[in-house]
Each structure stands twice: as structure tokens, then as C-alpha cells.
């Protein structure tokens, strides 16, 4: 159990660092760097904790991304920056790079290298499994991070009408 | 008429700045409405990927003025989005004049980006972080760091030479994955494949894809599809670079 906690925290800290790295690539305001780090870290904690409980990675990603989306609205009011500024960098570490890589690798082997029919069947399975997992995780990230933002936007519009 | 012309130019400038910085269509329309309300007129816009069409109508005289503007090269900049959003709120609550808004816009435009070296190191650290997430050990993370560093350096250089964006992405993806593949063929570390998988992740078009989704949900279907296609093209360029590396190294 203790080992799992250490592992999850290490992964989460690296998630936070990855989030900040992408934030700097997107030129986020200096004052939001710390917010992005902790949001990325929190998202990592949620995701890896759920995965540790043997919950499917797509569902874990959806929950973690929604967590970021829900948290970013009140945070935006607190630090006076629009929510996209820190919600998008914070979910970037959840991109399913390894599944995407496996998909590309399997497609390559299937098309150009493997001749044995049995192994080709395995590659087919790998292409479908990894490919669809990639797509579903990407959808989970976008839905998770953007739906709370869309829902919370009513307030902003209302304030605007007041003028 | 002169005032309307100035207003139209200003609003077009603001929307094109938001567009290239990576704002979604709804945010652009919202900012337009806020600034137009401040300047006592109404703005109707058509936002596309390459061109903006805008008509402003004066609330009192009902005179209208229409302008079209070409959108410059895209470069994601969240600081700009944030500053414009804050300016739009202050403008609305403090009743700014055109001159005030113009001055603020100039300040926003003159804000610099992070220095190139800092971006390189931060993104490479992000690459190393990704590698850790994909179960790489510290040696793999080092490989991921170096390949991301080189790939991003090539991407930035290509952008500075105004090379087509997809070709730049392809070159960056190819060079980053090439370096990481060296790690695989010498089997460095416990999980060299993780370094290869992460080496190209800095190219992933996260902002266009998330914006595409919010645009689609907002019923800005055309813009959503354009952004999606844009992201898909980037994905194809990344995959092509990775494909060629895998062919060269005969990975399977």
C-alpha cells in the first residue's frame, strides 16, 4: 500500500511538471504557473489513484479531466485569469501517448513486416484495442475538461447582460 | 463614419489576436460583444480560420461599417487571451474610450513570450515527465528529454524560417523519434519504448482538438470541423515521422 502511494505521488509530480512544461509552450501568464502545476498534480493524483483501484483508464481519465474542468471555474475567479489558461495545460499529461505509439507500431508491423497469419491476427487485435483506447481517452479528456466550462459559462453571459 | 471605421478596425484586431492565440469561437464573440457594448455599438462577425468579417452598427445613428481581415499565422499564446479577457471586463465596467482600448491592445501585443531556452528546457522536462508516466526509468527519461529538446529545437527553427506547419511538424517528429530510436536499438534503460513513445508528444495538437470540441458543442460546427481537421493533419504529420523512423530501424 505504502509503495503504491509513493508510486502514485511520483507519477503525479511528474504530471504537474509536464503540465507546466506545456503551459510554458502555450505561454501562460507567469502568475498561473504554480496553479497549473498543482492542477496537473491533482489531476494526476485522481487518475493514478483510480487506476490503482483497478478502474479502467478511460473512466479514470474522464473523472480526472472533469475534476480539472470543475475546479478551473472557481479558480479562474480567484486568480483573475480565464479558465482555459490553466485547464488545458493541466489535462495535457493525460494524453494517451503510449497507446497511440502501440497503435502506430502495430499498423506498421501488420502492413510492412509480419507474414505469419497467427501473428497478424494478434496485430489486428492490438491495432483495434490500442487505437480505440487512444480515441476514447482523447474523447474523455475533451469532454471532461470542456463540459464543466460550457455549463459554468451561463454566469459570465448573465453578468454581461447586466450592463 | 470615422469613428465606426476605427471601431471596426480595433474589434477586428482584437478578434484576430484572440484567434491566433488559440481562443475558441465563443470566446471571440463574447469579447467582441463586450468591447462593442463599451463603445456603444453592436458587432456582428463571421469568424473563419483564415478570414474575419465584421459589421459594426452604431447604436444611435444606426450607421454601419463592414470590414474583412485576413488572420495572420497561428501561435498559441494564453497570456494574450487572459489579458484581453481582463481588458474586456475593465473596459465594460469602467466605460473605456476607443483610445484607452487601443492603448491597452498595444500593451498586450508588446508582451513578450518566454525565452526560447526556457521553453526548450520546460518542454523537454515535460517530455521526461511523460516518459515517467509511461513507466520509463531515469535513463529512458534522459533519452526522452534529449529527443524532445532536439525535436522542439528543429520545430522552432522551422517556424522561424516560415516553413509550412505540417512539414515542420513532420521534421520535428522524425528527428525526435530518430534520437529516441537510438535508445531502443541500444536498449538503454528498462523500457526504451517508453522514451520513443514520449519523444513526439510535445507536438500533439491539444489546443486545436479541445477548441474543436467546444466549438462543436457550441454549434459552431464549421469552425469546429476546421479545427478538428487541422488537428488531424498535425496528427498525420507526427505519425508519418514516426512511421519513417520505425521503417529505418525495423522496429516491431
UniProtKB/TrEMBL annotation, chain A:
Biological-process GO terms, alphabetical: succinate transport
GO cellular component: plasma membrane
DNA damage keyword on record: no
Localization terms from the record: Cell membrane
Superkingdom, taxonomy of origin: Bacteria
InterPro entries attached to this UniProt entry: ThrE_2 (IPR024528), ThrE_Dicarb/AminoAcid_Exp (IPR050539)
Keywords carried by this UniProt record: Cell inner membrane, Cell membrane, Membrane, Transmembrane, Transmembrane helix
Transmembrane segments: 6-26, 33-51, 57-76, 83-101, 127-151
Membrane-topology annotation of the record: Multi-pass membrane protein
Residues of the Threonine/Serine exporter ThrE domain: 13-149
Primary location recorded for the protein, binned into one broad class: membrane
Family membership noted in the UniProt record: Belongs to the ThrE exporter (TC 2.A.79) family.
Protein name per UniProt: Threonine/serine exporter
Lineage start: Bacteria, Pseudomonadati, Bacteroidota, Flavobacteriia, Flavobacteriales
UniProtKB/TrEMBL annotation, chain B:
TM segment ranges: 114-132, 138-155, 167-188, 194-216, 228-249
Threonine/serine exporter-like N-terminal domain ranges (all copies): 10-247
One of the GO biological process terms: succinate transport
Gene Ontology molecular functions: transmembrane transporter activity
The entry's keywords: Cell membrane, Membrane, Transmembrane, Transmembrane helix
Membrane topology: Multi-pass membrane protein
Gene Ontology cellular component list: plasma membrane
Chief location bin: membrane
InterPro entries: ThrE-like_N (IPR010619), ThrE_Dicarb/AminoAcid_Exp (IPR050539)
Subcellular location: Cell membrane
Keyword Nucleus (UniProt): no
Superkingdom, taxonomy of origin: Bacteria
Entry similarity comment: Belongs to the ThrE exporter (TC 2.A.79) family.
Protein name: Threonine/serine exporter-like N-terminal domain-containing protein
Amino acid at each position: 500500500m505504502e509503495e503504491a502511494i509513493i508510486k502514485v505521488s511520483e507519477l503525479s509530480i511528474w504530471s504537474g511538471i509536464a503540465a507546466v512544461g506545456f503551459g510554458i509552450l502555450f505561454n501562460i501568464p507567469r502568475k498561473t504557473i504554480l496553479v497549473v502545476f498543482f492542477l496537473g498534480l491533482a489531476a494526476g493524483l485522481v487518475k493514478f489513484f483510480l487506476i490503482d483501484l483497478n478502474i479502467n483508464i478511460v473512466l479514470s481519465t474522464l473523472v480526472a479531466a472533469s475534476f480539472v474542468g470543475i475546479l478551473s471555474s472557481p479558480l479562474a475567479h480567484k486568480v483573475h485569469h480565464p479558465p482555459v489558461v490553466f485547464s488545458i495545460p493541466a489535462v495535457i499529461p493525460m494524453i494517451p501517448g503510449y497507446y497511440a505509439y502501440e497503435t502506430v507500431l502495430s499498423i506498421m508491423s501488420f502492413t510492412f513486416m509480419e507474414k505469419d497469419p497467427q501473428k497478424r491476427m494478434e496485430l489486428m487485435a492490438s491495432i483495434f484495442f490500442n487505437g480505440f483506447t487512444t480515441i476514447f481517452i482523447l474523447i474523455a479528456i475533451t469532454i471532461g475538461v470542456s463540459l464543466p466550462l460550457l455549463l459554468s459559462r451561463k454566469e459570465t453571459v448573465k453578468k454581461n447582460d447586466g450592463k | 463614419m470615422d469613428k465606426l471605421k476605427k471601431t471596426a478596425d480595433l474589434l477586428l484586431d482584437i478578434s484576430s489576436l484572440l484567434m491566433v492565440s488559440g481562443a475558441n469561437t465563443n470566446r471571440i464573440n463574447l469579447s467582441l460583444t463586450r468591447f462593442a457594448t463599451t463603445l456603444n455599438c453592436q458587432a456582428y462577425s463571421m469568424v473563419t480560420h483564415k478570414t474575419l468579417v465584421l459589421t459594426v452598427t452604431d447604436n444611435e445613428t444606426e450607421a454601419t461599417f463592414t470590414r474583412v481581415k485576413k488572420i495572420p499565422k497561428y501561435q498559441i499564446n494564453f497570456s494574450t487571451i487572459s489579458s484581453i479577457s481582463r481588458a474586456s471586463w475593465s473596459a465594460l465596467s469602467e466605460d473605456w474610450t476607443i483610445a484607452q482600448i487601443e492603448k491597452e491592445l498595444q500593451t498586450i501585443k508588446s508582451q513578450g513570450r518566454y525565452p526560447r531556452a526556457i521553453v526548450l528546457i520546460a518542454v523537454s522536462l515535460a517530455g521526461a515527465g511523460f516518459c515517467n508516466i509511461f513507466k520509463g526509468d531515469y535513463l529512458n527519461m534522459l533519452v526522452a528529454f534529449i529527443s524532445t529538446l532536439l525535436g522542439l529545437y528543429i520545430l522552432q527553427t522551422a517556424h522561424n524560417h516560415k516553413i509550412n506547419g505540417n512539414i515542420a511538424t513532420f521534421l520535428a517528429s522524425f528527428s525526435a523519434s530518430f534520437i529516441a530510436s537510438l535508445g531502443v536499438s541500444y536498449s538503454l534503460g528498462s523500457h526504451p519504448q517508453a522514451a520513443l513513445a514520449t519523444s513526439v508528444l510535445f507536438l500533439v495538437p491539444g489546443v486545436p482538438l479541445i477548441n474543436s470540441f467546444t466549438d462543436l458543442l457550441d454549434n459552431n460546427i464549421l469552425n469546429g470541423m476546421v479545427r478538428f481537421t487541422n488537428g488531424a493533419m498535425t496528427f498525420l504529420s507526427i505519425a508519418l515521422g514516426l512511421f519513417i523512423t520505425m521503417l529505418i530501424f525495423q522496429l516491431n
